[in-house]
Specification:
Structural class: mainly alpha
Helix content: 55-70%
Radius of gyration: 19 Å
Number of domains: 1
């Protein structure tokens, strides 16, 4: 088993602060969208649509808990995040298939399978996820940025809401890529190298990249990106900034892991949160370049 350089106390403190900061913010945005501004945000919160979103989110939370993919608290956080992403819809007429639900569902399936791929080998090395499922901090770290941005893509369609939706998908794609690259890379246990100096290190070390893991991550990001884009003639061109941002976030995650995490300054939850935020931020200039190219 590879020991983490960050102290357990600091790691727990960072994770708790992350949840204490982001979860209340997501709750406040939910109340704003679904209660205070319900009559102002337009078609996306029509009674039948909102009822469907709530039902799906509750089901999502229950399923993740029952199959032990998450602890009860983490499952509840996942349900709230699912609600925000399902309510975000940028392709009229309103449809669950054109919301943030398909990429979230695909993320869940891919990461669930990747976590269990080669589980016996990863458990022997002490690299496997706990059988009790992911903690609330892990859910917030991987999905909190996407949920935050989705809250600004609920309601009337505008350039700002469309960009927020694209940034949310980029964050989801990066989270998928990160999980698949690490889980599959650790299971295969092929050559792994630090992105900071390309020195070979054992699988499971903070911040390594491997050919198998990286390719797996990029394929997962591509699938989630494609699932999150509305069907129209520019789909492949819109795909580029989202996938590009997710790819940048994946390598940024490895860079943070090889530097700040490896030196004990940051825990894995903060690294994952920062990487999804980086992917979302990079999406905006990439989208601007794409829109300029298309004269939109």
């Amino acid at each position: 088993m590879i020991a983490k350089t960050i102290s357990p106390a600091r790691d727990r403190l960072q994770s708790r602060l992350l949840v204490a900061t982001i979860l209340p913010l997501l709750v406040a945005l939910s109340i704003w969208n679904f209660v205070i501004q319900r009559d102002e945000v337009g078609y996306a919160l029509a009674p039948h649509y909102l009822a469907g979103a709530v039902a799906i989110s509750v089901t999502f939370a229950l399923v993740t808990w029952l199959i032990k993919a998450a602890t009860p608290t983490a499952a509840a956080c996942g349900g709230l995040i699912c609600l925000l992403l399902t309510a975000a819809n940028i392709s009229p007429p309103p449809s669950l298939l054109h919301s943030g639900l398909p990429p979230l569902a695909l993320l869940f399936v891919l990461t669930f399978l990747a976590t269990r791929y080669g589980r016996a080998k990863k458990e022997v090395r002490g690299l496997s996820e706990p059988r009790t499922g992911r903690r609330a901090s892990q859910v917030i770290a991987n999905l909190g940025v996407a949920a935050f941005l989705a809250a600004f893509a609920i309601g009337e369609i505008s350039i700002a809401s469309t960009l927020a939706f694209g940034a949310a998908i980029a964050a989801l794609a990066e989270a998928t890529a990160d999980t698949l690259s690490s889980e599959i890379g650790q299971a295969v246990a092929g050559p792994a190298f630090l992105i900071s100096n390309f020195r070979r290190v054992p699988p499971g070390t903070d911040g390594p990249i491997s050919l198998t893991g990286t390719l797996s991550g990029l394929l997962g990001a591509a699938a989630v990106t494609f699932a999150g884009l509305p069907p129209h003639s520019f789909k492949l061109l819109v795909f580029c900034p989202v996938f590009g941002a997710a790819t940048a976030g994946l390598f940024f995650d490895s860079l943070l892991g090889a530097t700040l995490e490896r030196r004990g300054y940051l825990g894995n939850d903060l690294v994952n949160f920062a990487s999804t935020a980086f992917a979302a931020a990079i999406f905006y200039p990439l989208a601007y370049v794409t829109m300029s190219f298309l004269h939109i």
